[in-house]
Amino acid sequence: MKRLIAICLTFSCLATSAFANKVYVSNEKGNTVTVLDSDNWEVLTEFPAGNRPRGITISPDGKLLYVCASDDDTVRVFDAESYEELYTLPSGPDPELFVLHPSGNPLYVANEDDNLVTVIDTESHTVRAGIPVGVEPEGMAISPDAKFVINTSETTNMAHFIDTSDYKIKHNILVDQRPRYAQYSHDGKILYVSAEIGGTVSIIDIAEDGTPTLSDKISFEVPGVQPEWLQPVGVRTTSDGKWIFVALGPSNRVAVIDGQSHEVVKYIMTGQRVWQLAFTPDEKFLITTNGNSNDVTIIDVEAQKAIKSVQVGQQPWGVVVAPD
Question: What is the rounded CA–CA span in Å between residue 219 and residue 322?
């Protein structure tokens, strides 16, 4: 009986470990990536990631970690398990954010300094194309059907719709001042674009043929908080479309928005200068990066409340969670 209990306990530990997902946080000023365990939210390790790491993503199979090393003018690629740097990709100057094709190839990178989106072949490690966009490109998104890549330009205040078949801009939608992030709903029918200085999230309806139309904007108001502190940056939507979460920068809050009515229903307190967001694969938890308090906040999605704060590296910026 004791032997059976021991075997069961061992199996239980292995099962728990198997279902844990690693959380990777890029630390912009610390020049590192912090790795957390999503079971207990403990820090597993921290490793060097180049100069000024910001955008961070992971391959569909969870094996490769991509990091925008902005001040190195390159994308660094790491083994997601050993954290060994494997190679770099030719991103162009000052890569800030990127989005990976659902197949894992190519990678679309926003180059803030030269007003380009660079398309990188992740297998041959070569540049497929450089796409001229607006001034200070930042936000990147890809439609669920992978037919369009979206780039937001901070100074031009536009969302550019790039056809992935020929790398040409087919539509431009004017949004509010300094758009920072773009996020599709999972059904591809809506694109949400956050405007940091404008203080809004634009709702862009997508027709069946891919034509976008600006239909509405979400604004934010918190008693006792100055309006200029309500700066929308990161945006995430649940797969069922029920909830939208928006990081509101120096207000130290995440807004919870009803996915049907687009009304703000709640604000969740986080660490200081909340910036980017990522769900665990089961969407039970939402992780926020808080740049000025050097921590991440763990939010229980169903309860819509913060449950834990974890110290990471200096000035955390981006976050990605390993897939199941």
Answer: 32
Q: For residues 213 and 210, what is the distance between their CA atoms, to the nearest angstrom?
A: 10
Burial class (CB in 10 A: 0-12, 13-18, 19+), 238: middle
Residue 127: phi and psi, rounded to 5, are -85, 125
pLDDT in tens, 222-252: 999 999 999 999 999 999 999 999 999 999 9
Residue 85 CA to residue 230 CA, distance in Å, equals 37
- Name residue 94's amino acid: D
Residue 254: exposure state from Cβ atoms within 10 A (0-12, 13-18, ≥19): buried
Q: How far is CA 22 from the centre of its chain?
A: 15
> Distance between CA 286 and CA 137 in Å, rounded?
26
> How far is CA 114 from each of CA 130, 227, 302, rounded to the nearest angstrom?
10, 32, 42
Do 112 and 71 touch, CB atoms closer than 8 A?
A: no
Task: Render pLDDT for 294-315 as a digit per residue (tens, 0 to 9).
Answer: 999 999 999 999 999 999 999 9
Distance, in Å, from the CA atom of 244 to the CA atom of 277, rounded to the nearest integer, reads: 11
